[in-house]
Fold these 4 entries.
Entry 1:
Amino acid sequence: MADTKYKSTPSEPPPSYETAAKPIAPAGASARLRAPLPLDLPSLNMLKGKRVVLASASPRRRQLLAQIGLTNIQIIPSTVPEAFPKSLAPFEYVLETATQKAMTVYQQEINNPALDEPALVIAADTIVVSHLGVIMEKPRSEQEHVAMLKTLRDDPLHKVFTAVVVMAPLESAKAPGYALETCTEETLVRFDHNVTDELIMAYVKTREGADKAGGYGIQGMGTLLIERIEGSFDNVVGLPLRATLQMIEKVLVRGDDIDEDFGEPDEED
């Protein structure tokens, strides 16, 4: 049964730019911009009405995936402790963590007798790495939060790494039974060295950054702390969307290709 939460791709031509730019509320009511039409891509169309699992509780990742039309996502965070040693290189640490999340949730849901197998599992992990190479995750107290932001201000250049893992089951029996793609993106962030202790304390008390690696949210009030970035903005938010879409396309296409290889053999002359 098709899922009604997915917007079907319209069969008629899109509206003119003049029409699309007009507010959709009647005169006198609160005007809001018209929502864009959904992306009409084969890979996204293949997922309509199927289970798509996000192995993360992050509302920001869910919002980013909604931008490409994946609105009916099942949120199933991994419950396995993230215990990889921080002596690993940041690139390895974040990728190992994201892979563990994806594999744990995939194995759990592929064997879930109460539900159909997921068509896609997406997992991600984000870390902030100081200029000295110290891995910063979420602050665990107000004191640690303040110290974290002061460190980022006083040594203003740092990097944000996000690793993404995308998995899809194969219909064929070819081991390991799934297609998997990974990527890790890096964004350079420069804090504003003129940020005052007063602003840091005021920001900490909003608790906006309490659940975020590095203790700030660039998409919210945390932008007040940032001078500039070099690289993907949504990578800093928590999910590099362009790379994620490319991986979704790859795992779905790979799955089709492998399944075709395991189809009926050609008849010999």
Entry 2:
Amino acid sequence: MRNAVQRRNHKERAQPVERQKWGVLEKHKDYSLRAKDYNEKKKRLKLLRQKAAERNPDEFHYGMIKGKTDRNGIKIADRGNPVLSHDTVKLLKTQDASYIGMMLLKTRRAREKLEQELLLLENSKARRLKDDDGKKKAGNHVIFATSRDEQMEIGSQVALKGKRPKSFKTDDDGGGDQSSISVTGLDNPTLKSKRTSAPRDYSRAQMLDLAARKQAKSLQRHRKRGIEGCQSRLKALGVKEKTLVTAERELDHQRARMSNSVGGVNRAGIRWKI
């Protein structure tokens, strides 16, 4: 039952106010880590002192002559790779420069072409499709009539305007209860397979205007998507071109340093390179 009784929460003691300049108060776990690190370093120093005391001053092996160390005293080991000659390295860097130049030219041409496409898209407006001779396409459409009399009336009106619809459909042909006039495929290839219906009080001019508005919205949407895609690709090509230019410049500096074509001799007679 004693575990069911609420007990006092024992909190860790904080650093006194007069000792806050020394930081957080050290706990037992902090002391354990510090003591462990101190003992490991102590053992390592003891081992090094023992090796130095037992060192043989007459000890010699040929690795002492061939071996090299860096500035920190760490031994530089040979990886076993064959050492290339100076001329071979220069030839390889020349091939690298040719490849980078080719990729840079290819990227630059792609960027210029994409900039022209983006300029055309930004300056273009939503317009209806045209034929090769510059005239607007007539467009195929189907007019639905409710009876034979209405079919003849619509046919006479279209004939007076100089345009002929693709076909007529009436209720007598088995088309069902057709209470509207529908126009499809008006100057838009995407609308050829769809049927746009409207109430009976819609006139043919209103249907043409409605189809033209839908086509304009569709063209505007495709134009916006094309501009966004061109901008993203243009940004990626710009980053790639900048990276290739930096790589080409650095490679040219390396080739110049290898051929001793850059640099000079200072007053003390010491040769320097860039």
Entry 3:
Amino acid sequence: MTSHRALTTLRCTIPHQIPKYRQSYHSYEHNAPSTYTPAENAILSAAIAHVPAHGFTATTLSNGARDAGYLEVSTNLLPAGVFSLVKYHLVTQRLALSKDISTPPIQEPTNVLENVRALTLKRLRANEFIIHRWQEALAILAMPKHIPDSLNELALLSDEIHFLAGDTSVDTSWYTKRAGLSAIYASTELFMTQDRSPGFKGTEEFLDRRLEGAHGLRTTIGEIGRWAGVQGMGVINGLRSKGVRI
């Protein structure tokens, strides 16, 4: 029950759980702050290539250390263990959103919704090569000790998408838009882990329905929270049946 609640809370957040801040930088405006040491970056970037075969596991980290030219014991440089690998994927893929954008917004500001859709899809598609392992990542993100960092990263993603989409709001809608997108992204990402349609067409259609149906923040979050609550329990039970300790 605790894991179920954590998963639902983590990836389908409500407004007061979104950190109330404005980002001091965006990846377009400045180089990203140095989040990782050279050794950490080398190990984690090499380890990501092993996720499709070995998942978000200590084995993957050890393989990454070996490929990067370090002893396997060098994974001790990552005190958060496999969470470091999950977070590395989240951070690098968030920052990658701006790489194909020479000057934001990607379209005229009047097309903010279309821009949000395009950027959200781009981020979701970055999960394609590891989507069969992403339920493992969700279980790791849902661990109580990781929830603050995980929620913060989700908030940063929503902020980055809105910024790159051309959103210039400065009133209270700044928060509600980002909280709403966090909920929409979270539910769509979870849906994608079970999507077997060609080219993840079902995920794209699911996202469109969520965006089109977002008439009000409370309605959107309530709907997604109920849906994810049911699906989240299925994720937890499925992982437990495979021997994952949750």
Entry 4:
Amino acid sequence: DDCVLVRLYLPPDHPDLVATQASLSNSTSSSANKPTTSPPNPTSTPTHNVTHGTIQDIMIGVHTATITEAMRFCEHLGVDKTLMYDIVSNAAGNSKVFENYFRGMGMEGWSVEGIEEADVIVGRLEKAIQDVYSLRYPLYLGSAALQEFDRQKHEEGT
């Protein structure tokens, strides 16, 4: 799981560094929801709504988009869905996102529309991208994930 990889890079004496920093910066934010027109001051403490939950929503959204895209490609090639599920779920690159959201969707088709919680995942990713925007930080993969969800939704409707 990618969260384990993140923990490997945190200092051993501060395993909760991300959550601590997010809560410190949230507590100093008096205008977190107000849009700003001036560039951020690099010497001040940033104000934002980003939490560890925001990061989790980004990771789930991006993983879901990449998995659905890859699995749709396998479907396009005619690869058996059960076989692909077994290969991915038993591979070293397997993730909890794949296990949690894709376990029962194989017969529905490998798209975001086959995931019961799709609207929640997309909504949380959209909100997370907005929250991160307050830091003036681009989320290229997050934005691409939203585009992939939109592409799949329009493909399903045709």
